[in-house]
Design brief:
Helix content: 10-25%
Shape: globular
Structural class: alpha+beta
Strand content: 25-35%
Order of helices and strands: EEEHEEHE
Distance between the termini: 32 Å
Radius of gyration: 12 Å
Number of helices: 2
């Protein structure tokens, strides 16, 4: 089980990897956010952007991946389909 605040590597559309923060582990998937969104959620912002990812797209803890791989995941970017604001 992942814990709130863990940094994980996710594989998104097109195989692109990103590092996101765990907000909630829901068993079959995780509720994740960028660092900025995570900080907003911690501060109580109910509008903070949280996105669900299926467990199969979670590639592991970010710290473990950076130690064992030469391919460095990139920080998450804003999604072009996510609401801006």
């Amino acid at each position: 089980m992942y814990q709130r605040g863990d940094r994980v590597v996710v594989e998104g559309f097109g195989g692109r990897r990103a590092v996101l923060r765990v907000w909630e582990d829901r068993g079959r998937g995780l509720c994740l956010s960028s660092e900025a969104g995570y900080q907003r959620a911690l501060a109580g912002d109910e509008g903070a952007p949280l996105v669900g990812y299926p467990r199969r797209d979670i590639k592991g803890y970010a710290d473990a991946m950076s130690e064992s791989s030469t391919e460095q995941p990139q920080p998450a970017e804003r999604s072009p389909i996510a609401p801006q604001g």
